C-alpha cells in the first residue's frame, strides 16, 4: 500500500497535478489540470481522443490495454500514466511516457542499417511473444505504432497506441490481428533489408 502511495506521489510530481483513483480503479487526472508544457519538455506525451471514442468506453479500453501490455512487457512498452477525465466524467485521452525517438514509418525505416533493423525486429518479436503467451494482444500493430529510440548507440523499441480491450473476445481479436501483421511485416519489411531469416523470424511466422 505504501509503495503504491509513493508511486502516486512521484506521478503527481511528474504531472504537477492531483491523481485520483476513479470508480473503475483507474488513475485519472482532470482535463483542466493537464499542462501544455508537457509537450515541450519531452517527459509526458498527451494523447487526446475524438469524441466518438468517449461513448462505448474506447478510451478506457485503449488505456486499459496499454496498462496490461506494459505490465507484461515493460521494457517494450511506453509507460501509461493516467487517464484524462473531463467535467462530464468522460475519459477524453490519457498521459504516458514520451519517447525521445520516432515511429517506424517508411522513411525512417529506410534509414536503418541491417544490424539495427535486425535488432528492432528481434525486439518486436520478443515483445509480441511475451504478450501472446499471456493471452493479450496489441491489436493495432503498425509501423506508426512502434517507436524507436537510441541509447548508448543501441536501438530500442516501445509499443504505443494499442487497440482497446474491454472483454475477452477483444483479446482474441487483437492477437489474431497481431499475427496477421507480423506475418506480412516479416516479408515486406525485413526481406527487403537483406536481413537473414533467423529462428525468431520463423517463430513469428508460427504465432
Ligand atoms: N508516447 C509517445 N512518445 C513519442 N511519440 C509518440 C508517443 N505517442 C505517439 N507518438 C507519435 O505520435 C504518433 C501518433 O500517435 P498515436 O499512434 O498514439 O495516435 P493515432 O494513431 O493518431 O491515434 P489512434 O489510432 O488511436 O486514433 C505516433 O505514430 C508517434 O509518431
Ligand atoms: Mg497510431
Concise account of the structure shown:
The chain is an alpha+beta fold. The chain has helices at 2-15, 38-41, 58-72, 106-110, 114-133, 168-188, 199-205; strands spanning 20-21, 27-30, 44-48, 80-85, 91-97, 102-103, 146-151, 154-159. The protein has 2 domains: 2-97, no CATH class; 102-205, Transferase(Phosphotransferase), domain 1.
Model description:
The chain has helices at residues 2-15, 38-41, 58-72, 106-110, 114-133, 168-188, 199-205, and strands at residues 20-21, 27-30, 44-48, 80-85, 91-97, 102-103, 146-151, 154-159. The chain has 207 residues and is an alpha+beta fold. The protein folds into 2 domains: 2-97, no CATH class; 102-205, Transferase(Phosphotransferase) domain 1 (Transferase(Phosphotransferase), domain 1, Orthogonal Bundle). The chain has a 5-stranded mixed beta sheet with strand order 1-2-4-5-3, with helices on both faces. The chain has a 3-stranded antiparallel beta sheet with strand order 6-7-8, covered by helices on one side. Helix 5 runs antiparallel to helix 6 (168-188) and helix 5 crosses helix 7 (199-205). It is globular and about 50 Å long. Adenosine-5'-triphosphate binds at residues 45, 47, 78, 96-99, 103, 144-145, 147, 160-161.
Amino acid at each position: 500500500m505504501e509503495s503504491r502511495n509513493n508511486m502516486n506521489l512521484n506521478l503527481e510530481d511528474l504531472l504537477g497535478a492531483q491523481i485520483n483513483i476513479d470508480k473503475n480503479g483507474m488513475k485519472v487526472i482532470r482535463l483542466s489540470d493537464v499542462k501544455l508544457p508537457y509537450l515541450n519538455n519531452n517527459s509526458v506525451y498527451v494523447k487526446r481522443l475524438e469524441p466518438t471514442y468517449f461513448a462505448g468506453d474506447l478510451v478506457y479500453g485503449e488505456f486499459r490495454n496499454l496498462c496490461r501490455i506494459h505490465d507484461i512487457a515493460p521494457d517494450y512498452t511506453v509507460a501509461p500514466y493516467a487517464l484524462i477525465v473531463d467535467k462530464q466524467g468522460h475519459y477524453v485521452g490519457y498521459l504516458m511516457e514520451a519517447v525521445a525517438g520516432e515511429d517506424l514509418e517508411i522513411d525512417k525505416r529506410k534509414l536503418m542499417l541491417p544490424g539495427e533493423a535486425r535488432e528492432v525486429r528481434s525486439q518486436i518479436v520478443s515483445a509480441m511473444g511475451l504478450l501472446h503467451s499471456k493471452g493479450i494482444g496489441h491489436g493495432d500493430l503498425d509501423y506508426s505504432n512502434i517507436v524507436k529510440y537510441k541509447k548508448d548507440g543501441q536501438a530500442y523499441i516501445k509499443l504505443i497506441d494499442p487497440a482497446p480491450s474491454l472483454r475477452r473476445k477483444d483479446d482474441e481479436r487483437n492477437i489474431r490481428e497481431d499475427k496477421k501483421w507480423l506475418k506480412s511485416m516479416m516479408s515486406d519489411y525485413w526481406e527487403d533489408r537483406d536481413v537473414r531469416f533467423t529462428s525468431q523470424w520463423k517463430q513469428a511466422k508460427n504465432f
